[in-house]
Design goal:
The protein has 4 helices and 7 strands. The chain is an alpha+beta fold. A hairpin with a 7-residue loop joins strand 6 and strand 7. Helix 1 crosses helix 2. It is elongated.
Length: 150
């Protein structure tokens, strides 16, 4: 049942509702005003059509290329050699690449590190670390078990 919905039908479906005080401790919400079968069918048609359209829609917040360029600096992995300077934030130590066999990447913010972790974890064994070395200050670091051009 995929029928196109007109602007007029969407407006009529919206008009079937009241938005405002619904009587529960000054709570604002929706009340269905028109409860006839024709209006309910129209609301159903609008909802099903919109969810079908949204379901097929891909929204891309950042591209893979964007995420791959978020890091400040990178180098081949040395985690096991200097373990004491790192705390594991996400992932497990077993997933940390052997020294020289993976890539470590540093990020300016926790958000950048988390975005990168979620991206790379779909491709490689990945660990998000907190690097406590003060050069110039502690920051988030990611290890992936692949040598990425540095």
């Amino acid at each position: 049942m995929e029928e196109n919905v007109t602007i007029e039908e969407m407006e009529k479906a919206k008009e079937a509702f009241y938005l405002g005080d619904i009587g529960n401790d000054n709570e604002t919400g929706f009340k269905l005003l028109d409860k006839d079968e024709e209006t309910i069918n129209l609301i159903g048609k609008v909802l099903f059509n919109l969810t079908a359209q949204l379901g097929g829609m891909e929204m891309e917040f950042l591209t893979g290329e964007d995420i791959e360029s978020l890091n400040r600096t990178s180098q081949f992995s040395f985690y096991h050699e200097q373990k004491e300077r790192f705390e594991i934030v996400k992932g497990s130590e077993q997933d940390a690449a052997k020294d020289g066999e993976g890539t470590m990447m540093w990020y300016a913010t926790q958000l950048e590190g988390l975005i990168a972790f979620n991206y790379y974890a779909t491709k490689y064994k990945t660990v998000l670390l907190w690097d406590m070395a003060e050069n110039p200050e502690p920051q988030h670091c990611l290890i992936v078990d692949k040598k990425i051009e540095v």
